[in-house]
Amino acid sequence: MKIVHIIPGSGGSFYCQNCMRDNDLVKSLMALGHEIHMVPMYLPLSIEKNDQPDDIPIFYGAINMYLKDKLPSYRFAPNWMKKLFDSQPFLRFAAKKSGSTRASGLEEMTISMLKGEEGRQAAELKHLVGYLAQEIKPDIIHLSNALLLGLARRMKIELNAKIVCSLQDENEWIDLMTADYQAIVWALMAERAVDVDMFVSPSKFYFGKSMDYLKIPPEKISVVYNGINPEGYEFSSLPFEPPVIGYLCRMSEYFGLGILVDAFILLKQDSRFPGLKLYLTGGYTGDDKIFVKKMLKKAADFGFENDIRIFEEFDKKSKIQFLKSLTLLSVPVPGGEAFGAYQVEALAAGVPIVQPNVGGFPEFIETTGGGIIYEPNDGENLAKALASLLTQPDRIRKLGENGRKIVLEKYSLSIMAKNMMKLYEEL
């Protein structure tokens, strides 16, 4: 059986959960002896240099896609220029710029992509299908997320392959559009969902949400928990002199960094936690840079600028070292997420998590016993939740031990890969 994973890249400028999930899953499936191919779209796959094979082209290159969409005359550009803009150095540079990884301004392109063979990128789709037909001849094609559903129909017809599609936080792209565009995009995704043989959700929460938004019948969705490779993750010493709160995600207002900074400032004003530190990692885009500077200034206005530290590197080795320095981790995404890979990574290091009672967070914490939830999701209530643990070191250690045990049992990459392979075989 030949299996293709079609994976949009982030260029490695920020902590991309889908990229990490897809890259690690492909590696794990390969390790099990299966013939798996990664086909990247838009941008290079990740910050891990060996995740992007040099001999595989990047389809739908982000720079060329943008220029073709915004400048009709660009279709007459020489091929050498288009090839240059599809090179990894140019695409990695583009990934760091504002606009390359956000929906605002790309609504029409998103709609066109979902129209597939009827959209403005029909030539790119033909090129991709031709490559798959000539070079791989796949039995299974696995799309990374539902925003790629426009690819499914032509691939299914011309390649006679079964189509699998992962579901995870598509709303994070769509939520940033106006209400009118949101309605159009969700309707197109529901229309194109019929071309897929099986969807994969990382949580029961997102299973239900996807049924509602995409009108998918329950028998066409399987829940397969995301996993990580636990190799290398070491127990944190869970420091208390001073305690350290961590944040591992894209440093953005959307993912709740502002809420965490507000909670940190409140805790620093509490006489029980004078030495408290806040460590941040996960990268950011050009759009996020202004917000991050604003948060740092806010802390500085209270005299806490020396108590916040940003770690620029977030490859696996750097993340492991980062997690070893933490007492607690919180990524208080206002709307919640389908899964939250940072939760698994934190618990793999024995670091308990403090998350809002939204999205898939309560489901994960109930399953692992590795943290607590709070509500409503604001700085004051997050500060109270963090304080309730920081005053109970023994409870923090117990939560960390419980969480690590369950993560190793239920959220390992090997289990995820076996469950996914079973699904492929059934199809």
Structure commentary:
This protein is an alpha/beta fold. The protein has two domains: 2-227 and 414-426, 3-Layer(aba) Sandwich (Rossmann fold), CATH 3.40.50.2000; 244-410, Glycogen Phosphorylase B (Rossmann fold). It has 18 helices and twelve strands. It has helices at 17-31, 62-70, 79-85, 88-95, 107-114, 122-136, 152-159, 171-174, 179-192, 204-214, 257-268, 286-301, 316-324, 341-348, 361-368, 379-390, 393-410, 413-426; strands spanning 2-8, 35-41, 140-143, 162-166, 198-201, 221-223, 244-248, 277-281, 308-311, 328-329, 353-356, 371-374. It has a six-stranded parallel β-sheet, with helices on both faces. A four-stranded parallel β-sheet has the order 9-8-7-10, sandwiched between helices. Helix 11 (257-268) links the parallel strand 7 (244-248) and strand 8 (277-281). Helix 1 packs across helix 18, helix 5 runs parallel beside helix 9 (179-192) and helix 11 packs parallel to helix 12 (286-301).
